[in-house]
What does this fold into?
Amino acid sequence: MRQDTKMDAETGGNSALVSPPESPSSPAGAGLRASGVEHSFDELRVIDGIDLELAAHGVLGLVGPSGCGKSTLLELISGLREPDAGTIAVGGAGKSEERLRRCAFMPQRDLLLPWYSALDNAALALRNQGEGKAAARRRATALFERFGLGGFEGSAPAELSGGMRQRVAFLRTLLAGKPLLALDEPFAALDAITRGQMQEWLAGALREDPRTVVLVTHDVEEALYLCDRVAILSARPARIVAELRGPNPRADDRDAAVTDPAFVAAREKALRSLREGTRTNRVVP
Amino acid sequence: MPLQGTTRWKRWLYPALLLAALVGLWQVLADSGALADVFGVESFLVPSPSEIASALWDNRSLLVENGWVTLREILLGFGCALVAGLTFAVCLHLSETLRIAFYPLLVGSQAIPILVFAPVLIVLFGYGIGPKLAIVAIICFFPITVTALDGLRSVEPGAVSMMRTLDASRWQIFRRVEAPTALPGAFSGAKVAVAVAVIAVVFAEWSGSSSGGLGWLVFQYNSNLRTAEVFAAAFVLALMSMALFGLVALAERLVITWR
It folds into this structure.
């Protein structure tokens, strides 16, 4: 089954690519290594033999058609589920509880809790970890300013715009202090313009505070702009059909980056792989 | 906002005017004898509003005294149901085995007319306030338990996953996500429960072991055909029901500040 996996020419058929070198400034780095991961829900095969390798502070994109099992893969990586077969290790730790301690999960919908203020939502992980209310709020407040949320600390989530809600949700994920961030279509619910702004903002945030990131998205452009490497998944059951990279990940000027001819070519290639991956599995179930 | 101000006083004035008109019509029909002649409702069956008003005034100390007995039974019974119902809902939420075993029985138990068991309850709880509390509590228990359980079950699975990766313990997930999610439902259940508690307490007081309370008083008046007094006691019960409902609604507004 894995033999017919189409590899992008650029990667030379290597399923595991080299990620940017680990930044020595942040000690909390943790890489990801997954091999032969399979998962089914009852009779339904969702993940069909996936290998991933990502160095600490690398950003990996998982792109695939809707319902292909990307979110399940993300849940497996973050330790929310245990795979039926294969191994997943985050920072060398393979047990699901250990992965859970090393990963922070950001769901597609912001899921801010309406009974807490924006600040208390951001500080949720700190409170869970046993930090006092005042101390947790102090730490979150410092980041509010930096992430352009200053002045909205006391606001109810419903009073924030979609982009601001996603920023609070990202802050909540970041403040958990985990080395690996599992982002599940974080900007899918936003309009195109806000989505672009948020991608640029996330790129900046990751430059300032590098983490290992696995980003699930169905937006090829988003993946190529934000990620060092992008794995294209087939329709369910998910396999990796191609791996490729954008020419200039997380560039300062997103608009310039995504209109660059090399970027456009990579996007076309990604879309082609995506289409093929969808077709392959439809004909051969 | 002037519009909002207008609608606010209208919300009080309009029902008040309607009620006054209906009571006025009732009074006119009773005074003119139309109630008896046209509708065949004799005055010993339905008194006029003024008769009820004077019955209220003449029996005020008796009504207050028995009203207090009834109120205490409602509050204690409702309180027991609240504690037991919420605890039970949490247990069923936490244990799938318990939920699968108990849920159908819980729903089925609603089909049992509780008064059939009044003698059993009297044997179990004696002749004092016990059986009455039991009847009120059993009747209040169901809406509280079911709404709280449904509320707990309505938590988004994604929110629980998110909390797990944010290092939340089971207790923290309950306290920070599940309990607040369930609160609005639980309050709706409490409002239904407190409204039926008033009906339940009347039945409980009729069921044999009483020597006081508004329900018992209604029973006594009824057997002596003192209908004005029956209506007066029913009026006090209705006021009590509305006041209790209002109190729960007020508590809901104070607790659930995020809606």
